[in-house]
Every structure is written in structure tokens, then in C-alpha cells.
Design a protein that fits this description.
Length: 327
């Protein structure tokens, strides 16, 4: 699942390197970095927030964010969504306009204040267990997956992170569906922010009307913060897994919401912090094989930045190929 050719996820730059054994910096040589740009979100003609993100799947990012914030409850409540058609190409590509229908109106002003205060990371610093419980009840039992199937996720993630392999600068979130005795990876999105990547995969599922994701595993490449667990709970995801450590509030949220929280999922090991009863072989016969979520329609590509002048080749950094477990 490489990044689309028309999507500027990666930008070329010049970099000089230094090693302890070397006496001086190397001459500048070409390298690649991940693109990070602001995205302005307007809802019903009013500004909601500006988020820093990696361009691509912008509309799914916005869908997922609106759903996590309770500003829409289903895909049907989004009457229209698209990039702005006015202004320069850069401005139009970095502004998304949303019109809702039948959605809860009272939350927009509160969500705007909360997102500004929290740097648009979803729920950082302000959602309590009681507030979350009013919108997202605890998730019921019934889903089971063998621990060894979860151990397959890091390699599956690395194999599909083409932009990360080139830059080392992106997080990823993946949705895998429990299909009998196996897990089927149906969606993966990359972004400079973990919570953005989660919004993108949940937004894709919302677009395809697949929520609640009652047979899904959400796997993230970084740590398991409580905003990740919260977004998963709102989407009905029973199992959250992460490459790195959980936080105390993430564990508390998962316990309160009846979720399974797995962390330090890498190589041949994992830690289960709550909900261990789900980590057992599936007890039901497999159904239809889950289909991969289609990518959202792409807008026209912006002209790529011109490559830097040719330089003498320099030794490459040793950071390439770390994969998800290296973050």
C-alpha cells in the first residue's frame, strides 16, 4: 500500500552529516523528509480548528476528527465535504469545508474551544471518564483473537509504510478485522501525528459506513496515549494495540470501556494491560473475508518541489529501515 504517486508525502532537502570519528561535516547531499502542513477545518461556515498534518486522506482525517468529537454521529450527517476552491493552490489544498445535516449543533462552539486549547489532538487534557461514557458506552465481550495473530501486525505495518521507510518521520495507524482464526489488515494510514493517522483510518471506515467497528483491532506505531484509546472506544473498537508504552490514563480508559489494551507489541512479545480474556482463539466460524477500505478520491496533485542541485553522494544515515518498532 505505497503512498499514491500524486501525493507529496515526501520532500527533498539537503543535509550535512557528522560522525564522531569524522573531523568535519560532509558536504550537503540530498535527503528526504516527511511533509508537514497546516490544515484549516471549517464546519457550517465557521472555523473549527487548524491541525498540523501530513497531506493525504484529508477528508477522512476530518471525518474521523468530527466523529471523535461528537460533531457527527454517522456519515449521513455530513451533507458535503471537500477542499476549498478559492485562494491559491496551497491555500485551497490546506482548507477543508464541511456542511452538516441533522448533526448536534450545540457541540460546535465547545469543540472549537477544546480543539484550540488542546492543539487539535482530539481529546488531550480535557475528556473525563464520565463525559466519554455519555457518548461511548462500554464495549461488550464476544471478540477473540490469538496473541500470535497480534504479533504479525508489526511486520504487516512495516511492509506497507513506504513513506516511513524513506523518511523515518511518520506514524501509522492500521485497522485489522478479526476473520476467524486470522487478522485481515483492511486499512493503513500514515501521518506526522499518531492521532491524525487514527482519525484517517476511522474516517475511512465512517465513509464506508462500517461503524461500529466491533470486530476490529486498532494498531498504532507509537505509544498508546489515552486519546488513542478514546477514539477507538467512540468507534466501537474492542482491541487497541501499540508498539510502544501505554499511559496510566490509557489503561484506566480501556478498563472502564471494556477494551483490551496491548502495548510493547514488537518482535515476539507483547504486554496485556487489561481485557486479557479477548486474547484467545476465535470461537466462531469465519465469515466473509473483510475487504480493504478503498482510499478516498484524491484531489489533483500539486506541482512537486524542484530537486536540489546535484551533489557528490554522501554516506546515508543508519536510520533507514527501522520500521514501526523503531519509534
Amino acid at each position: 500500500m505505497p503512498p499514491p504517486a500524486d501525493l507529496p508525502l515526501v520532500r527533498r532537502v539537503l543535509v550535512s552529516r557528522h560522525r564522531r570519528a569524522s573531523a568535519q561535516l560532509t558536504p550537503p547531499a540530498p535527503d528526504e523528509v516527511v511533509v508537514e502542513e497546516p490544515l484549516e477545518i471549517q464546519v457550517d461556515g465557521k472555523p473549527l480548528a487548524v491541525v498540523m498534518r501530513t497531506p493525504g486522506d484529508d477528508l477522512d482525517l476530518v471525518r474521523g476528527l468530527l466523529f471523535a468529537e461528537g460533531l457527527v454521529r454517522s456519515a449521513d450527517e455530513i451533507a458535503a465535504i471537500g477542499h476549498c476552491r478559492r485562494g491559491s493552490a496551497a491555500e485551497a489544498g490546506n482548507r477543508v469545508l464541511v456542511t452538516r445535516q441533522g448533526a448536534p449543533r450545540g457541540r460546535l462552539s465547545a469543540a472549537r474551544r477544546q480543539l484550540v486549547a488542546s492543539s487539535a489532538c482530539g481529546v488531550c487534557g480535557r475528556v473525563t471518564l464520565e463525559q466519554l461514557a455519555t457518548r461511548a458506552p462500554a464495549i461488550g465481550a464476544g471478540l477473540h483473537v490469538a496473541p500470535d495473530r497480534l504479533l504479525e501486525l508489526p511486520a504487516a505495518l512495516r511492509a506497507r509504510q513506504a513513506a516511513f521507510a524513506r523518511t523515518g518521520g511518520l506514524h501509522a495507524a492500521a485497522l485489522a478485522m478479526v476473520d476467524g482464526e486470522r487478522l485481515a489488515l483492511v486499512a493503513l494510514r500514515e501521518d506526522v501525528g499518531r492521532h491524525n493517522a487514527v482519525d484517517k483510518v476511522i474516517g475511512a471506515a465512517l465513509r464506508e459506513r462500517l461503524l461500529p467497528l466491533s470486530r476490529a483491532v486498532l494498531f498504532v506505531s507509537g505509544r498508546a496515549g489515552y486519546e488513542i484509546v478514546q477514539k477507538a472506544r467512540v468507534a466501537g473498537i474492542p482491541i487497541v494495540a501499540a508498539v510502544s508504552a501505554p499511559s496510566s490514563l490509557a489503561v484506566e480508559l480501556a478498563e472502564a470501556g471494556g477494551q483490551t489494551l496491548v502495548a510493547f507489541l514488537r518482535d515476539d512479545r507483547l504486554n496485556v494491560y487489561c481485557g486479557r480474556e479477548r486474547l484467545a482463539p476465535a470461537r466462531r466460524a469465519p465469515g466473509a473475508t473483510p475487504r480493504a477500505l478503498p482510499a478516498a478520491p484524491r484531489r489533483a496533485a500539486r506541482a512537486p518541489a524542484p530537486p536540489p542541485p546535484a551533489r557528490a553522494a554522501a554516506p546515508r544515515s543508519g536510520r533507514r529501515g527501522r520500521g514501526a518498532a523503531g519509534r
